[in-house]
Amino acid sequence: MIRTTALLSLAAAATTSLAQVAITIDIEQPVLLPGESATVTLFAGFDAGDHAMALVITNLLTSVGSSGWSGDRLIAPMDGPGSDPGGPSATGFDAITAGQLHFPPTSGIYADDSNPIAFWQATYTAPLEPAATFEIDLSTMTSSYDVYTDRRSAVSESQLDELAEGSGTITVIPAPASAVVLALGVACICHRRRSTVTGGF
Questions:
Q1: What is the tens place of the pLDDT at every residue in 106-149?
Q2: Which comes out higher in pLDDT, residue 187 or 168?
Q3: pLDDT-derived band of residue 98, with 50, 70 and 90 as boundaries?
Q4: Quick check: helix, strand or coil at residue 45?
Q5: Cα 98 vs. chain centroid, distance in angstroms?
Q6: Per-residue CA distances from 81 to 39, 91, 147 (Å)
């Protein structure tokens, strides 16, 4: 049920970010049990009057830094020349640089005009034994956000001044209470069995 609701929410979020100058943080599964994983994808959106995304340079900030994260990568076609998936750091991932080529009409290279367009992805895995429920806050801090303004031209311009930064939350919860009760029951049975074998009460 949680997964279905989350997917519907994400679909709605992607729709509302259409034709908006915004980064969207798409969290596949925002509520995790110990050891479970969530895929996090960054999307870039732009005005309906423009043609396509050209370049994004951003940091993904997380309240756990890069701990627990793996598989960070750029998503084609936003992995063009000069791009970089960024580097893990104490604050998350720094200098994610994603871009695509657009050289019409003589070269025949046209940028993907998907809006919003996915440009970066990574997986977060919850710790096996969290002491208590905790939240991982996610946000972006962007230094470049350029779009191709026309399908017939390679000219790009910055929309950084209009950008709405991305945000999101992953919640990690301990094992369900029933599992804890079961574990305590097994421990109790083992203790009684040991007591019987050694002649204790």
A1: 788 999 999 999 999 999 999 999 999 999 999 999 999 999 99
A2: 168
A3: very high
A4: strand
A5: 15
A6: 25, 26, 16
CATH of the domain at 94: 2.60.40.680
Whether 149 and 21 have beta carbons less than 8 Å apart is answered as no
In a domain, 190, yes or no: no
Q: Which amino acid is at 18?
A: L
Q: CA angle, 66 as apex, 62 and 67 as ends, to 5°?
A: 110
CA dihedral over 1, 27, 89, 70, signed as positive or negative: positive
Q: What is the mean pLDDT of residues 7-22?
A: 56
- Residue 174 DSSP one-character state: P
Number of domains in the chain: 1
Report how far apart, in Å, the C-alpha atoms of 119 and of each of 23, 35, 114, 174 are.
Answer: 10, 26, 11, 32
